[in-house]
Fold:
Amino acid sequence: MNQQIRETTFASIWQAIKDGKNFFIAGHQNPDGDSLGCTLTMVSLLSRLGKNPYAYATPAIGADLQFLPGLNNIHVNQLPQNPAFDTVILLECSDRTRGGDLESVLKNAKTIINIDHHLISDEYGHINYIDSSASSTAEIIFQLFEANEEGLLPSPDEATCLYTGLETDTGRFLHSNTTAEALRVASALVALGADIAQINQVIYFTKPYIELKLLGRALEKMELRFDNKYSQIVLTRRDFEALGATPAQTQGIVSQPTMIPGVEVSALIKEEADKVSVNLRARNAVDVSQIAQKFGGGGHARASGFKVTGKPLEDVTSELAEVVKNVVKEIR
Ligand SMILES: [Mn+2]
Structure:
């Protein structure tokens, strides 16, 4: 994306912020650090500008993100009865349903602003700022600040929220989306007061007992297939019940097998109460977002996923294996 387009588009976002009064802000469902960090930053920024922001998240906020400053400003699972927002800002939502059932909000909005870094977007907004070269939406939001003509900068709390988005979406600055720009923005956020000691302590050096036990069980069940290029972990309902764990407690598990030399694709397949959900990771050669798209999902080249309802675990597992088999057989 060239600089000209970028500045023009940021200018149109600032104009919409200036023109708006009652704002609705949401990230995607099951919000991650980027989604929540950006939502909180926008709420805080809009409040500073004298606007009325209403932030929404669904269905819940993970235990590891409870430390984020300003979290009590988020309405979890609560939509107003008669929504009347002139401006809607959706973050990290590749289509208008990613943030939940928001039609009642969207249909009355004068301006919908869509800010995202995912590869594919429906461009459902009146203003669509999609930059798939950005490591995270947090990186884009920081650039948005920089494009502000009045020299507005993130507060220390906002810097903490944005840094959390950047750090979690880059896998602690380890994934291939850790660009020079991502590191520049991270550095600027630290200079602005991001509390990195707390972020790291809470997100990376804290894990509940049950999650460690679940990791152990998952690694125990890991299987290598197709010349050891595919790692498959299947967690059944019985696995979760045996530990008193939930499918939400599997964060980080799917990345573990990509440490094994030769593994190109890692899949974590979870049997949930009403669906089968699959997380995919790639080491290098494979674009797993294309695999996820075949099953109605999406995401990034190195990290993606999908959900299937009304199909048994075994069928999803074998259909996925068939697709992966055809993809990895090309890799020498
Ligand atoms: Mn993101």
